[in-house]
């Protein structure tokens, strides 16, 4: 036995690892393995590392970055799946693993179990709370639609909105199933929230829609990223995913769920004709109400007016009194005029021309005497005023400062153009001006000695 061992070929660790690798890869081609996904890790490289396990065993799985984008579903912890790939070894750690090319859910039950688990998690966070629901605008000016740009869904929505109440529609095209669906829907929701920064009108309402399909087809709308994006959207959202019997997590997070895309369009806008008819009906009811109110007021006014006496009856007695007073005043006026006429005639008889002429001459003589006296007084007053003016002129001439200057005096002025009469208050080296009789001005500085 010892000789047998001694004659055995000696291998290096790498040679042994390579031999095991070749043995496994040659005996196992592509295989399909069913199990539950355990720990999932996605480093910066973009590759996906995970554990695939059952009750007794665990095997490592790797999904290269290039294949991860084409997966039907993303690996999630707790999800039961069927992985298709190739068995190989990793000699750096002496372990075997599966290079996975395809991941499929292991039946509908696995997906529904994962869905319930995710639903409970998001519900516990309050993402489905009614307090977060926003009101759907009654008449949105602009509607954003997130759906596939091809197919009957977008045509049905545009046709239904145009038929009911035409508004501006912005379509954000996305894939509505497959691996990239969740990320594209999230990007569309975030894009609509920021669209006003690009100069485009921000929608007043968003419709997220797609047609019917299997649970796997609709799975992108159960993605946690999509649910969170819907919950934090600033714009109200109507979800219309699948048919009436299909319910996804986005339906629970949206502000309003529609059973179909066509129903979403109907919930988004009212019927324009119905709205016009309602307005006309309200207008007619308002007019009838105003007319009834006017008639009621008129009826009440007539009742009030009837309770008052007629104006003719009210004015009959005052009018009669006024007529009586008018007649009395006319009679009294005529009597007064007759009396005045009689007095005027008596006075005019007593007046004679000679008497009037004498009175006029007397008044004229008296006036002439007063005129002469006034002339004498005015002449005396003017002479007195002239004499006083002459005296004042002499005094002013004697006091004129220019004559004083001609006698050898001068005027001293400080920098504020004020007269300096004494040295009191002056400062040493202060600028002064001295005005002489010939209007010459000398500028000097003080030289005060203590």
Short structural summary:
The protein has helices at 2-7, 13-27, 65-68, 108-124, 152-164, 181-194, 224-232, 249-253, 261-268, 272-307, 311-350, 353-398, 401-406, and strands at residues 30-41, 48-53, 58-63, 80-90, 95-105, 142-147, 168-173, 205-210, 237-241, 256-257, 411-413, 431-435, 441-445. It is an alpha/beta fold and 450 residues long. The mean pLDDT is 84.
Task: Please give a structural write-up.
This protein has helices at residues 2-7, 13-27, 65-68, 108-124, 152-164, 181-194, 224-232, 249-253, 261-268, 272-307, 311-350, 353-398, 401-406; strands at residues 30-41, 48-53, 58-63, 80-90, 95-105, 142-147, 168-173, 205-210, 237-241, 256-257, 411-413, 431-435, 441-445. It has 450 residues and is α/β, with parallel strands linked by helices. Among the domains are: 13-106, Nucleic acid-binding proteins (OB fold (Dihydrolipoamide Acetyltransferase, E2P), Beta Barrel); 140-270, Rossmann fold; 403-445, no CATH class.
């Amino acid at each position: 036995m010892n000789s047998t061992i001694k004659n055995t070929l000696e291998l290096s660790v790498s040679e042994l690892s390579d031999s095991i690798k070749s043995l496994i890869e040659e005996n196992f081609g592509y295989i399909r393995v069913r199990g539950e996904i355990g720990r999932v890790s996605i480093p910066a490289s973009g590759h996906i590392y995970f554990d695939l396990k059952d009750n007794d065993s665990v095997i490592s799985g790797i999904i290269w970055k290039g294949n991860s984008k084409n997966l039907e579903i993303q690996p999630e912890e707790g999800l039961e799946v069927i992985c298709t790939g190739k068995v190989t070894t990793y000699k750096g750690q002496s372990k075997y693993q599966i290079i996975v090319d395809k991941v499929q859910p292991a039946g509908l039950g696995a997906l529904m179990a994962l869905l319930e688990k995710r639903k409970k998690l998001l519900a516990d966070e309050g993402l489905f709370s009614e307090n977060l629901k926003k009101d759907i605008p009654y008449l949105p000016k602009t509607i954003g639609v997130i759906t596939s740009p091809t197919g009957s869904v977008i045509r049905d929505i545009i046709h239904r909105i145009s038929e009911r109440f035409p508004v501006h529609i912005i379509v954000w095209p996305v894939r509505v199933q497959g691996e990239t669906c969740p990320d594209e829907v999230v990007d569309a929701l975030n894009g609509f929230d920021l669209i006003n920064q690009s100069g485009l009108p921000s929608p007043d309402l968003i419709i997220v829609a797609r047609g019917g399909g299997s649970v796997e087809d609709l799975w992108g709308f159960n993605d946690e990223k999509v649910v969170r994006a819907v919950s934090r959207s600033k714009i109200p959202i109507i979800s219309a995913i699948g048919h009436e019997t299909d319910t996804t997590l986005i339906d629970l997070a949206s502000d309003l769920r529609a059973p179909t895309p066509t129903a979403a369009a109907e919930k988004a806008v009212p019927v324009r004709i119905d709205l016009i008819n309602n307005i006309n009906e309200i207008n007619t009811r308002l007019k009838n109400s105003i007319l009834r109110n006017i008639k009621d007021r008129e009826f009440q006014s007539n009742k009030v007016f009837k309770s008052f006496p007629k104006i003719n009856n009210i004015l009959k007695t005052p009018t009669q009194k006024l007529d009586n007073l008018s007649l009395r005043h006319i009679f009294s006026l005529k009597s007064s005029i007759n009396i005045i006429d009689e007095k005027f005639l008596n006075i005019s008889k007593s007046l004679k021309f000679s008497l009037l002429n004498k009175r006029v001459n007397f008044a004229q003589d008296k006036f002439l005497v007063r005129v002469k006296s006034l002339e004498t007084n005015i002449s005396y007053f003017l002479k007195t005023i002239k004499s006083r003016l002459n005296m004042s002129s002499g005094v002013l001439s004697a006091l004129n400062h220019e004559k004083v200057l001609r006698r050898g005096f001068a005027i001293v002025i400080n920098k504020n153009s004020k007269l300096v009469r004494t040295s009191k208050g002056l400062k040493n080296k202060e600028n002064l001006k001295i005005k002489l009789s010939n209007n010459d001005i000398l500028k000097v500085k003080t030289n005060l000695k203590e």
